[in-house]
Amino acid sequence: LEMERELAEAIRSGQLVLHYQPILDARSGTISSVEALVRWQHPVRGLLYPGTFIPVAEDSGQIREIGAWTLEAACQQLARWKTMGRHPGSIAVNLSASHFRDARLIDQLSELIRAYGVGKGELTIELTESTVMSDSETSMQTIQALRGLGLSLAVDDFGTGYSSLAYLKLLRPQKLKVDRSFVRDLPDDPDDCVLVRAVLGLAEALDIDVVAEGVETEAQRDFLLAANCNQQQGYLFARPMPAEELSGRLRTWP
Ligand code: G
Ligand code: G
Ligand code: MN
Ligand code: NA
């Protein structure tokens, strides 16, 4: 309860910050998009990571407020980078299941897109398999609405949840993000090698892009490149960092 009260104060008084982690074309080393990750600059406890407060916020319902704040901060940063003559490609925002199911989400997004001049594909929504799979009828409608707004859809932590291949065919997300648990033991674990190649084959057949998460070693990078998985994210390339640190590395724009 103490945390809940503090979190309400944090949202109100601007203690939340976004850090950005680039997703690279590992072949050329250029940044193709960035993922926004929320942090809490706590006045006493220092920089807190989402694992320490997102679960609390999910229980208290504050996750929707955090989500609304995150979406706006990301759109604002996108506009700022464009004004600076820099472009992140696309900014990806993680959306919680309850915010995804919130009836106000689509209006919120369409207002942000208008207010910040967000172009088609410039904002990506990351959803987990369990989020899209639950209540699939309503999910489909929300996904169609997101797409109608020109947003791009990524399935996060792919492979860790319950999902059917039928939903991939139906949803046609732009991106699958292969969970880092499948990347960790590459290239030594033969099962993971087979699994990752299978996901890549499936995605290629459905014309969906694949991002490998949690790439930490050159051996992982090289295995993935050889398997034709160019889009990679992980500590090998960069950790999540404040926007100002990333600005100089973004492609020039227009
Ligand atoms: O750096 P890392 O500790 O940032 O993130 C841990 C987890 O928190 C990840 O699973 C990520 O998806 C989640 N997360 C990070 N930022 C947000 C956010 O803005 N909203 C939601 N719902 N989850 C987030
Ligand atoms: O669930 P989601 O994919 O949104 O989580 C992103 C999380 O993964 C963030 O906490 C981010 O800090 C973390 N992360 C990013 N790159 C790496 C990496 O190379 N190794 C590990 N262990 N975590 C990573
Ligand atoms: Mn993510
Ligand atoms: Na993930």
Automatic annotation (TrEMBL):
EAL domain ranges (all copies): 1-254
Recorded superkingdom: Bacteria
Protein name stated in the entry: EAL domain-containing protein
UniProt source species: Inhella proteolytica
Span within the parent record: 407 to 660 of 660
